[in-house]
Amino acid sequence: MERVVITGIGLVTPLGPTAESTWEALLQAKTVAAPITAFDASAFATKFACEVRGWDATPWFSSRDLKHVDRVAQFGVAAAMMALADAGLTLPLAEAEADRWATYIGSGMGGIITIEHTMATYAAKGPRYGISPYFVTDIISNIIPGMVSLRGNLRGANMSHVSACATGGHAIGEAMRAIRHGYVDGAVAGGAEATISPLGIGGFSSLRAMSTRNDEPATACRPFDRDRDGFVMGEGGAVVVLEGLTKAKRRGARILAEVVGYGASADAHHITAPSPDGQGAARAMRMALADAKWSPDRIDYVNAHGTSTPLNDAAETAAMHHVFGAHARRLSVSSTKSMTGHMLGAAGAAEAAFCALALARGVVPPTANYATPDPACDLDYVPNEPRQVQVRGAMTNAIGFGGTNAVLALAKWEE
Predict the structure, then answer these.
(1) Which residue of the set 161, 221, 342, 355 is catalytic?
(2) Active site residue: 165, 221, 355, 377, which one?
(3) Which pTM value belongs to this model?
């Protein structure tokens, strides 16, 4: 089977509008959670989030398009086009190779901002003038890969995975399989999300899943800390370019990391809560290791799902103990959500990108805001400072509502 490598990364996150600016902020343990500016959140239980502030989509969209294209599509398309440029690919793709490139970009909730706006205009103007002809195409998740494939002339599989917070992980894993088995030579894969809106914030607040530290938002997201009280909403887009090794070498591509394993499982336990013993996530982690043909001690770094919710962090820690045994205490584990916030459908792809950069650059990002150990979370969470370490193998976990799990294993690139 063909080996699969990462040759490009594109990121739009609350920490920065590019992969490099985001990475630099991660290594500074920068936290950007702050009162919401997108709408008046004064009546909500949670009044803060990690927003992509000062977002400028004009490099990728005309002023006419920006009148209707939902924020989620702006993030996803921008991240994808940056990833393709980072990979050194010339667009549109030539006819001879266009059929061999796929697009797998998903979103957990799609164009929710457009839905909210349209409901308001419908109520005010009625169906004839209140509903835009762009409404349907602006809310469906698969419009993101559709736009990317159209711009780049990518004519292979074109689809949008929708699996809540595991979306980005599943997209990369399924793209890797398609390349490995020869269906395509390359793929653009990842996720996007834009849910900092009344319904997005209100819905998760009603679930009591979000932090309510309104007086100290910058330190509210504290994964694995004893005093964690919920996640902090983020937004953005995260996309990687995957290629078969043969194709990447033939065109002289720069290789950042190799994707060597993928696991996907279901908890079959509860619609929102993870299995307390972590066995669902543990199954996906074991699958990824088996797919890579690795023993557990081959992993040096885990970018954890680490949402800063009481249940998730304890369950994920339990899962790592199940999978890694005594080696679990030798792992460097961090949750970058402590800085980006929870980017939902984009989170798994962003965190896979962070693993690739950690492998390529020999440094792992920290868990910010970690202050008080929790007996239920007893691993090395790289607290508050980045760590210089030569990572041979990395794992990233993505766990979503519906009991869905996606795990990727990545290796440092060596000839």
Answers:
(1) 342
(2) 165
(3) 0.97
Active site residue 165: yes
Structure tokens at 180: 């490995």
Total residue count of the chain as it appears in this document: 415
Q: List own/partner pairs for 275-280 with CB under 8 A and 24 or more apart.
A: 275/315, 275/403, 276/311, 276/314, 276/315, 276/318, 277/315, 277/318, 277/322, 278/315, 278/316, 278/317, 278/318, 278/319, 278/320, 278/321, 278/322, 279/319, 279/322, 280/319, 280/403, 280/405
- Given 161, 170, 221, 305, which residue is catalytic? 305
Closest by alpha carbon to 233, among 220, 243, 245, 242?
Answer: 220
pLDDT reading at 415 higher than 80: no
Strand partners, 210: 231
Residue 275 pLDDT more than 90? no
Number of Cβ within 10 Å of residue 54's Cβ equals 6
Where residue 301 falls among pLDDT bands split at 50, 70, 90? very high
342 noted as active-site residue: yes
Q: Is 355 a catalytic residue?
A: no
